[in-house]
Amino acid sequence: MFAEGREDKNIMFRTMLVEDSHSFRQLAKIYLQSEFPSMAIVEATDGVEALKEIDACPPHLIFMDFLLPGENGLELTRKIKASHPNIVIILLTSYDLHELRKLATQGKPDYFFNKGSIATGEIATLIKAILSEKGYRADGSMEALELRSREKITPWVLKRRIWWESVPEASSYRVYVSKDRTLLDPDHFSWETTPGIISKQVIGKTELILPDEWPEFPAEPGTYHIGITSRDDLGNQSDPFLLSGLFKFFAPPAPSRGGIETCLLSGFITR
User: Fold this and answer.
1) How far apart are CA 187 and CA 180, in angstroms?
2) Is 191 helix (H, G, I), strand (E, B) or coil?
3) What distance in Å separates the CA atoms of residue 108 and residue 64, rounded to the nearest whole number?
4) Which residues sit opposite 61 in a β-bridge?
């Protein structure tokens, strides 16, 4: 079912909401339309409806509920990615459990968010980055190629926020990152001495903004596994709390003008 914009489906950025809850679809649709008024929004209540719409006209972006009637969101994501790898899929769930995150990465979604973050600035910033990457304006309408060539639209710099709950007994935290998840498993993990892992100490807060606050974080796009430990005043350090996510950082734009000139420098001659 279409919410808006069928007549412009070939030029408008198309987003699909795959969600069986009518109230949540309405909340998401209202928020997206307020932030991106020229975006076409498609709704589907289950995998059957979603696949029919995708076959008719594939969207650019899908918000996928984890728990759906019939085929669940994880299996549906796998199926869509197999036939439409360029569709960006954001997997949503009401739960924020480690096992769900582990399963979600196996389904190869591009991003994984808690449902409570659907109407947040983080989601809006992510969508703006996706729009820019695919050649659309920030409102969801098609960007003319001549405008892009004149650099009237500035590319967005996508940042990621890693956060965790505060631990009352902790005096600091250490955040570890690795492309190999097994290095963070108890059988292989030995904190700062683990080969192939980089880490950063965090004091006085429970978040990191990437890449600003951790410039050493790998810049290569891909799925990274994050381990977060708590440390007390005596130096005791907990086992890691694990997160996984796809990181895609976009560089800022290049300078629009420049050149090499010959300059005549005047001076004084002393005798």
Assistant:
1) 13
2) helix
3) 12
4) 15, 88
Q: Which long-range contacts (CB under 8 A, 24 or more apart) does 79-85 make?
A: 79/47, 79/51, 80/50, 80/51, 80/54, 81/107, 81/108, 81/109, 84/54, 84/58
pTM, rounded to two decimals: 0.51
| Confidence (pLDDT) at 250 | 61
Is 268 a domain residue? no
SS3 state of residue 212: coil
Give the alpha-carbon dihedral of 129, 132, 134, 135, to 10 degrees: 170
Residue 154 lies in a domain: no
- Per-residue pLDDT tens for 149-208? 444 444 444 678 898 999 999 999 999 999 998 999 888 899 999 998 999 999 999 999
Q: Where are the alpha helices (DSSP H) in 144-187?
A: 145-149
Q: Which domain holds residue 212?
A: 160-247
How many residues are recorded in the chain? 271
Cα(186)–Cα(191) distance, rounded to whole angstroms?
10
- Is residue 10 domain-shared with residue 142, that is, in the same domain? yes
Pairing relation of β-strands 172-178 and 222-231?
A: antiparallel
**63 falls within a domain:** yes
- Tens digits of per-residue pLDDT, 63-98? 999 888 888 888 899 899 888 888 999 888 876 555
189-198 pLDDT tens trace: 999 999 989 9
Query: Which positions ≥6 away from 121 have C-beta within 8 Å?
Result: none
